[in-house]
Structures are given as structure tokens and as C-alpha cells.
């Protein structure tokens, strides 16, 4: 029986790489905000279809889950996210709210809605976190705040659902993605060199490892860091 994976943020970056990796043996629900982006990614995969929702809107999220009609779900990957990194003195209420809605509230609500399907499959929840979920610093109060919260959510979910589903937090360091380009630009770096950073495909391989270990085993946390060998 074909396994099913729902991946948010699957139209580009890490989410797209995870969709490509898992598509070798999973039916993929391609999570994206627009139908065009979801279809573009789904059309490149052997067995995939769009999962379109504004993740920051709970009614839209519930409607998308209802439309998908999943009685079982083998893998749920939370990869969608946003980066806002002003200094504390410059951060506005809306910056905090927008970031927490997408980076924390959306994964929590989507998981809640899909728990029956995940339990039925004894499935896996994968939270794509960040090194910023382990430490913070200047201009990182908002993004790190959301990632610390996502870490707490995953830890609580794992404890509550022990024996029903497995929950893994993946902590990538710097990855060669559009978000990394945005971050480097905000740091004042003019020349971007993606060869120094982790390839999205290698984060995807870590996700595969977490879901393929035998049922008596759980991988709770995975850190995927640049090696420095290409620096």
C-alpha cells in the first residue's frame, strides 16, 4: 500500500527537496499557498497532488484538511515558515504575530486536525526547525522565538503521543535556500556563496532516516550542519 506524506512549504527550498526525496515511495500532498505553485511542484513528481491553504488562517486550514479527506497519514512534515529578523527596538506587534501564526500556530493546528489520521497510520510528524531553535542572538528574537516554541510543541506532542506516532525535530544550520539568501543580505553580505551551506537534499535525507527506522526506534532530534569543507 502506498504511503502518503503531506509536506507544507513543498513548492521550494527544503520542503521541495523533502517532497522529491519522499516521492520515490510516497504519494505526496504538496503544501503551498497558491494552486499554481502547488501544481508546478506536484507535476514534477510521480504521484502527487496539491494541498493548498493559507496556513496562517485556521478556517482555510480546516477546509483544506477536510477537502483532502485523509483517513490515514504516514508522514506530516512542517516545512513552511517565514523569517523576520529586526532588532527588538524595531520589531512591531505585526512582525511577532505574523511569524508566530505561520511558524508555530499553523503547525500546531494542522497537527491537531490530522492526529486521527496520523494515529491510524502510526505515522511520523517532522518539524523542520532551525539552529535558531537551539540558540538566539542579535536580530533573532522573533525567528528564534518561533523556533524555540516549535521545539517545545514537538517535545510536548512526542510525550503525549508516545506509542501512537513518532515526532522528530530537524535542526538545519545554514542551508542553500532563498531564505538563506534573504538572511545573508540582511547581514550585509553582498556575494552569496551557496556552496558553503548544506544542500536541501541532505536535509531531506535526514528526514528519510527519521521515518525509516524500524518501529521500536524513534529519532527525536537531528542536527544537520555545514561541515566547513567547502568553505
Automatic annotation (TrEMBL):
It comes from Corynebacterium guangdongense. It comes from the Bacteria. Pfam families: adh_short (PF00106). Coiled coil: none annotated. Keywords: Oxidoreductase. Residues 3-178 form the Ketoreductase domain. The keyword rRNA-binding does not apply. This is NADP-dependent 3-hydroxy acid dehydrogenase YdfG. The keyword Oxidoreductase applies. Belongs to the short-chain dehydrogenases/reductases (SDR) family.
Amino acid at each position: 500500500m502506498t504511503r502518503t506524506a503531506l509536506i507544507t512549504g513543498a513548492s521550494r527550498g527544503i520542503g521541495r527537496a523533502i517532497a522529491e526525496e519522499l516521492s520515490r515511495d510516497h504519494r505526496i500532498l504538496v503544501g503551498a499557498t497558491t494552486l499554481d505553485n502547488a501544481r508546478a511542484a506536484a507535476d514534477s513528481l510521480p504521484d502527487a497532488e496539491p494541498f493548498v491553504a493559507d496556513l496562517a488562517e485556521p478556517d482555510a486550514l480546516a477546509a483544506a484538511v477536510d477537502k483532502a479527506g485523509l483517513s490515514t497519514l504516514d508522514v506530516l512534515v512542517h516545512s513552511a515558515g517565514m523569517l523576520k529578523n529586526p532588532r527588538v527596538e524595531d520589531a512591531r506587534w505585526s512582525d511577532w504575530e505574523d511569524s508566530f501564526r505561520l511558524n508555530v500556530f499553523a503547525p500546531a493546528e494542522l497537527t491537531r486536525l490530522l492526529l486521527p489520521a496520523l494515529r491510524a497510520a502510526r505515522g511520523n510528524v517532522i518539524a523542520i526547525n532551525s539552529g535558531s531553535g537551539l540558540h538566539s542572538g542579535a536580530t533573532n528574537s522573533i525567528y528564534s522565538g518561533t523556533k524555540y516554541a516549535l521545539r517545545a510543541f514537538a517535545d510536548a506532542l512526542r510525550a503525549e503521543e508516545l506509542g501512537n506516532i513518532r515526532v522528530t525535530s530537524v535542526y538545519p544550520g545554514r542551508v542553500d535556500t532563498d531564505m538563506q539568501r534573504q538572511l545573508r543580505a540582511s547581514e550585509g553580505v553582498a556575494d552569496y556563496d551557496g556552496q558553503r551551506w548544506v544542500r536541501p537534499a541532505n536535509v531531506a535525507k535526514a528526514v528519510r532516516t527519521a521515518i525509516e527506522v524500524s518501529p521500536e526506534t524513534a529519532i527525536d532530534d537531528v542536527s544537520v550542519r555545514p561541515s566547513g569543507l567547502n568553505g
